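Box 3.1 A note on notation
Throughout this textbook, protein chains are presented in two layers. The first layer is the amino acid sequence; the second is a token string describing backbone geometry. Keep the layers aligned when reading.
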Amino acid sequence: MSKAEEIQKGISQLRLSVPELRGVLLATTEGLPVAHALSDGLDPQRFAAMAAAAVNLAKKFGENLNSGPMAEISVTGSEAQIYIYAAGTKAILALAAPASGNAGLIHLEARAVARSFAQLF
């Protein structure tokens, strides 16, 4: 199976495992989208750029607080939740979910997919 097929398989797996997700995006740490399945008019370019900016800020926190490399970030708003996971050192996995989404299930499924993506990069 090619890398592109494995990435699409991981994204599809997440969408099936957590159907309430509004979006799944794999991007480079520089903010370039690699693959995605987005709904609700989410722009992959913008989502990737914002996720990468959040990761870079988290890296600065980690460096200054000696907390180690960034593993994941979550942002909860009144209408939505955003989860960002490190997928190795060169990629990030970002998810958009409704505020009522099951955070435990999202973390369980997304962490596994992020680990599999890390092996591809």
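Residues 31 and 52 are 5 Å apart (CA to CA). The chain has one domain: 3-120.
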